[in-house]
Structures are given as structure tokens and as C-alpha cells.
Amino acid sequence: MTLMKWEPFSGPSVVNLFDRLFNRTFGPLAWPNSESEAFFSFPVNVAETEKELIFRAELPGLKTDEIEILATSDQLILRGQRQQEKEDKDTNYLLVESSYGSFYRAFNVNVPVKAEEVKASYKNGLLEVRLPKAEGAKTRRVPIEG
After folding, report:
1. How confident is the model at residue 85 (pLDDT cuts 50, 70, 90)?
2. How many Å apart are CA 42 and CA 66, to the nearest integer?
3. CA 106, 84, 45, 68: dihedral to nearest 10 degrees?
4. Do the beta carbons of residue 82 and residue 57 sit within 8 Å?
5. Torsion angle (degrees, nearest 10) of CA 75, 55, 23, 62
6. Residue 79 or residue 73, greater confidence
7. What domains are there in the chain, each with its CATH number?
8. Element (H or E) spanning 17, and its range?
9. What pLDDT sits at residue 20?
10. Stretch 97-107: mean pLDDT
């Protein structure tokens, strides 16, 4: 038997693993072109019922016309822009933690959905998108014989 030195951070597989992990967490990023253009991320919770997938995104302070939802049979995309508030020239800000700029999140849906029946609502900064599952996509409990 030959002993080989294990190098956990060598080879393309580790790089691919980190790329996939980063893209799943933050989505594909397009870097800003200038200082005035910024990007921010937002939390999303995804739930599944027998009949639908439910996405809830926290987007406080936005208007519905600043949010765009794109749905296909296998993907949901949430994107838009939060405008920066106009600063008062007479005010000296000591701390600014508000996020602004473009946002983009894409989710691969692992079950077929009825894209034409997707519904969205927005209330108190919470965006809810409901994707009804296609008939063939519903989970079925399989009995075990024997």
C-alpha cells in the first residue's frame, strides 16, 4: 500500500465547491460599474406544501414598482432596485447601515410549477410569492409492501 499526502485545498474540485457554495448563498453577482451603483442581498425563506412552494423575501422600504418577479416552470427570479435616500447636506451622518442599490436572487425550483398561476403579494416589507406545483409534481406517499 502506498501512502499519499492529502491536500484538502488543492485541485479544481475545491474551487468548484466554493464557487457553487458562494453562488447558492449570494446568487450570481455582477459587480458594480461605479461607486454610485451598489448591490445588496436580502433574506428569503422557502416553504413547501403539498400543493405549492412559498417564497417569502424581506424587502422593507420598497415600493411594488421597484420589485420585479420572473417565473418559469423551473426558476424564480427576484430583482429590482432600492433607491438611496437623498441626504440632507446640513446633516452629518455618524452611521449609515441602510442597504441600497440593485438586488438579484435566482432560485432553481426542483419541481415543475405552473408559471402562469404564480401569485405575489407585498405587505409590510414582506414579499410573498406562491408557485403552484404542476399536477405531476405533487409528493405521493408510497406504501411499502410486505
Report:
1. confident
2. 14
3. -40
4. no
5. 110
6. 79
7. 34-84+100-137 (2.60.40.790)
8. helix 12-26
9. 66
10. 84
Q: What is the largest CA-CA distance in the chain?
A: 79
Q: Is 90 left (phi over 0), alpha (psi -120 to 50) or beta?
A: alpha
Return left, alpha or beta for 109; rule: phi > 0 is left, psi -120 to 50 is alpha, else beta: beta
Q: Is 54 left (phi over 0), alpha (psi -120 to 50) or beta?
A: beta
Residue-level length of the chain: 146
The residue type at 124: N
28: CB partners within 8 A, 6+ apart: 104, 106
Q: What are the residues whose beta carbons fall under 8 Å from the beta carbon of 128, sequence distance 6 or more?
A: 54, 55, 56, 57, 120, 121, 122
Sign of CA dihedral 40, 45, 48, 49: negative
Q: Which residue has the cell 432600492?
A: 82
pTM over 0.85: no
